[in-house]
């Protein structure tokens, strides 16, 4: 009788130990999965390319341009509804934009990163017809910094030209160097 109870106690103890070990293994597997997922996200490319497909339009000064037709958005960090890119990681980002401008009227734009103008491009010419203005720049950004293209304070309104079947205004950005 004593031997049976002793064996029962040993069996219960072993069952408890096995249960604890299984729980520990499940927790470790979950942690390993989370580490892998986190590392995979850090390796994901970050890049977007978007265009404006609508015809000519006019914006007032300090207005954000919304490139509403997204062609590529790896990582989903560009918002086609507000025109803002949010940096997912600290690093050096390359931005480039091209705008088609209705000639003879002001249309000057700038890249804004966290409220600061980084670079600008546009036309303040007086010639007729249609012109294009482009700029490419690099900018250091921290995680969750915001970047977008907006009109500047040159002039009172900015007139852009495009064709819906031949878009001429675009914005792209990509992470080119990740910093720790």
| Share of residues in helices | 10-25%
What's the count of strands?
A: 12
Give the termini distance in whole angstroms: 66 Å
Major β-sheet annotation:
5 strands, antiparallel
Strand order of the largest sheet: 3-1-12-6-9
Structural class: alpha+beta
Q: Enumerate how many helices there are, as a single number.
A: 1
Radius of gyration, rounded?
28 Å
Average pLDDT confidence is 82
Estimate nothing, just give the exact number of structural domains: 2
Strand content range: 35-45%
Please identify, by name, the CATH architecture of the largest domain.
Sandwich
**Tell me, what is the CATH class of the largest domain?**
Mainly Beta
Shape category: elongated
| Order of H and E elements | HEEEEEEEEEEEE
**Poorly predicted sequence stretches spanning 5 or more consecutive residues:** none
Q: What is the CATH topology of the largest domain?
A: Jelly Rolls
SSE inventory with pairings:
Layout: H1 2-43, E1 47-52, E2 57-60, E3 69-74, E4 78-79, E5 84-86, E6 91-102, E7 107-113, E8 116-123, E9 130-141, E10 146-151, E11 157-160, E12 169-178
Antiparallel strand pairs: 1-3, 1-12, 2-11, 4-5, 5-10, 6-9, 6-12, 7-8, 7-10
Domain C1q: 41-180
Organism: Mytilus galloprovincialis
Keywords: Secreted, Signal
């Amino acid at each position: 009788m004593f031997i049976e109870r002793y064996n029962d106690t040993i069996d219960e103890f072993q069952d408890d130990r096995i249960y604890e070990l299984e729980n520990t293994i499940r927790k470790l597997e979950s942690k390993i999965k989370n580490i892998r997922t986190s590392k995979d996200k850090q390796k994901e490319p970050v890049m977007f390319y978007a265009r404006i497909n609508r015809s000519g339009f006019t914006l007032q000064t300090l207005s954000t341009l919304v490139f509403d037709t997204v062609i590529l958005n790896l990582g989903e960090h560009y918002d086609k509804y507000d025109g803002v890119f949010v940096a997912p990681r600290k690093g050096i980002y390359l931005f480039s934009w091209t705008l088609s401008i209705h000639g003879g009227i002001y249309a000057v734009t700038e890249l804004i990163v966290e409220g600061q103008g980084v670079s600008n491009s546009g036309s303040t010419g007086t010639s007729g017809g249609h012109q294009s203005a482009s700029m490419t720049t690099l900018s250091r950004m921290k995680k969750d910094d915001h970047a977008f293209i907006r009109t500047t304070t040159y002039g009172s309104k900015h007139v852009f030209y495009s064709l819906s079947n031949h878009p001429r205004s675009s914005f792209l950005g990509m992470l080119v160097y990740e910093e720790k």
